[in-house]
Hints:
With 224 residues, this protein is an all-alpha fold.
Amino acid sequence: xxxxxxxxxxxxxxxxxxxxxxxxxxxxxxxxxxxxxxxxxxxxxxxxxxxxxxxxxxxxxxxxxxxxxxxxxxxxxxxxxxxxxxxxxxxxxxxxxxxxxxxxxxxxxxxxxxxxxxxxxxxxxxxxxxxxxxxxxxxxxxxxxxxxxxxxxxxxxxxxxxxxxxxxxxxxxxxxxxxxxxxxxxxxxxxxxxxxxxxxxxxxxxxxxxxxxxxxxxxxxxxx
Length: 224
Ligand SMILES: [Fe+2]
Ligand SMILES: [Fe+2]
């Protein structure tokens, strides 16, 4: 990774980056800084660095594809915030967020933190922006109709440089083309992984797949 990007993975460097950048909405900067400090309290160091790396990757993608950088940053900082919250359970919060916590989420523990991330962002940080909240809710599965903010987070969470996975070159090449081809390759990689291990696949992922294919993302991916 680039040296300056490395510096920004520290809490201090990340806070300085937000404070100095004119790209982020000034009225959101206090909340952004609060979230950066929360990462250190709520997450292991490895996961905190992953979240910062997702945010930096998401910001590059947001600039590349003309997506709102403040929303992408908010969604990135919140996406795994509930991942180590052992005091929260989806059963307990099901009534609060029935649209977020469906049967498909309940059945897959790995998806619980995405729904609970919405609960934490609303209750603890006063985030109400539906684009930010839906990006967090669907950051693992994707879904049909996912907004550009959600698509950037879906891709950034997977391609951030600290994550190890097979087929990185192919996925990164697709992400250079368009947000749709990037999503298609990330989703293909996730589905292949889950299928090979006989794991459950959330309905939203198949709906996202069908949407991307009918948008022609597959054709574009094959042309490159
Ligand atoms: Fe996650
Ligand atoms: Fe993540």
